[in-house]
Amino acid sequence: MNAADLTISLDIRTSYFFAFVAHGLLAGVLASFWRAGRTERGLGWWILDGLQLAVASLLLIAWGKVPPWLILVGSNLLIFSNAATIETALRVYLRDTVWPGLAIRWIVSALIFGAWCLAWQGEWTYAQRIIGFSAAFLIQMALLLAYVVSLRGPGLRFVQRLLLFAILLVVAALFARMIHVLRHMDTVVSWQQDTLLPWLTFTAVFAAFLRACCALYLVQSRTEQRLRAANQDIERRANFDFQTGVMSRSYFELQAPEVIATAGRDQKPLAFLLLDIDHFKAINDTFGHLQGDDVLASVGQVLRHNTRGSDLVGRLGGDEFAIVLRDVTDSEAMALAERIRVQARSILMPDGGALSLSIGLCGLPPAQEFEAAYRCADAALYVAKQEGRGRVVSHDPVSASPGRVLLPTTA
Fold first, then answer.
1. CA atoms of 188 and 30, how far apart (whole Å)
2. Which H helix or E strand runs over 208?
3. CB-CB neighbours of 341 under 10 Å
4. S-S: 26 plus which of 50, 199, 241, 400, CB 3.0-4.6 Å?
5. Which helix (H) or strand (E) segment is 225 a member of?
6. Measured between alpha carbons, how far is 364 from 366 in angstroms, rounded to an integer?
């Protein structure tokens, strides 16, 4: 296109004004998310996509008030670089590989623009330049199409389909314009005879609207992911003890009755354990609270490593822990409790002393309730303390007296 060709009709000027307003509004909507603090990586490139086409449309509207060479060079530079901007927005937002694919993409855009500049300075007719422009832009669309087709990942199917539709719309409009110009090479000598140019402009606006929808969908999806992750983190902090990694008291006392009730319905036996660190106050007083925190963390690790995912392990407060073992016999529960007690002895104090645990165990019949189970295990723990600490005591939930006492063995 040269200066002599740019006799702008009302329809063309109107279409460019519509394009300027539409692209500017779309860029403004995306910019509002930017200003709202949702500074997602790549969102700036989506905004630039709209701004490029808005400025290009404004330059074309300003024909007669701005030097022709500035309009032609500026608008076509913005248009030819737009496809590369879209791909950059996708790659950056999705944290996809940037080098070397994106660098090659921009180099191709620069070469295409350089070829257009040479054609503009040559003796090509308006129709020939339209064919060259459309072919060059189709190359841009083909490269963008190839990248969009290659997109993989959760939640990208909708974005991929919407972008494919937008690209194919523009491709169809470009082909229609090329065919029209090829069939009327002798009569299409300026913009006045280029009757499909306004339709191409409107198609580009609609495609930009679809791209903006993709950007908003991606922002919304990532925001929802972060909200879910934040909610999960809040839930984890509320339900699990930070120091030990086991359940908090509130969460344990919420889950344990449900587990015990389910076992009762299924007629499955359970075991309830209460554990207490012997002389924990003396540990804090002698070695400091930091050492006490390390002891709690180490005990939590021992408990987690010796229980199954189906078991419940919680910290009831201070140095007291509780475990609900699902579907175990009394002998299996006793063996596990003793294993925990022995492994806890490997936790050494700064003076070389070994950590001691007292454990009260209660094997539960299917009809047992949580409160009764807790009282039963607590009675067994009391006996373990009275018998000299550092041992496992099993309590009979039916009788009022403790059952077996498992004396400590050499670790």
1. 38
2. helix 197-239
3. 24
4. 50
5. helix 197-239
6. 6
Give the largest CA-CA distance in the chain: 110
Check residue 400 and give its pLDDT: 44
Give kind and range of the element (H or E) at residue 403: strand 402-406
Whose tokens are 């294993």? That residue is: 339
Classified as helix, coil or strand, 209 is helix
* Nearest-angstrom CA–CA distance, 389 and 385: 4
pLDDT tens digits, 14-67: 889 999 999 999 999 988 877 765 556 778 899 999 999 999 999 988 877 888
Report the distance separating Cα 408 and Cα 260, nearest Å. 29
Residue identified by tokens 């009764």 is 372
Dihedral of alpha carbons 343, 344, 350, 351, sign: negative
The total of other beta-carbon atoms located within 10 Å of residue 180's CB is 18
Domains, the chain, with CATH or none: 3-235 (1.20.1070), 249-406 (3.30.70.270)
* Region at 394 (left for phi over 0; alpha for psi -120 to 50; beta for the rest): beta
> Cα angle vertex 363, ends 359, 369, to 5°?
105
Asked whether 354 and 348 are in contact (CB, 8 A), the reply is: yes
Residue 219 has pLDDT above 90, yes or no: no
Q: Counting every residue, how long is the chain? A: 411
DSSP H helices, 150-196, are 157-183
Q: Which helix (H) or strand (E) holds 30?
A: helix 10-35
Do the beta carbons of residue 373 and residue 356 sit within 8 Å? no
Q: H or E element: which one contains 404?
A: strand 402-406
Distance between CA atoms of residues 304 and 293, nearest Å: 17
Q: State the Cα–Cα distance between residues 92 and 199, nearest whole angstrom.
A: 31
Nearest CA to 379 out of 390, 366, 393, 368 is that of 393
Copy the structure tokens of residue 231: 């909610």
SS (H, E, C) 317-364: ECCEEEEEEECCCHHHHHHHHHHHHHHHCCCECCCCCECCEEEEEEEE
Helix (H) or strand (E) holding 86: helix 82-93
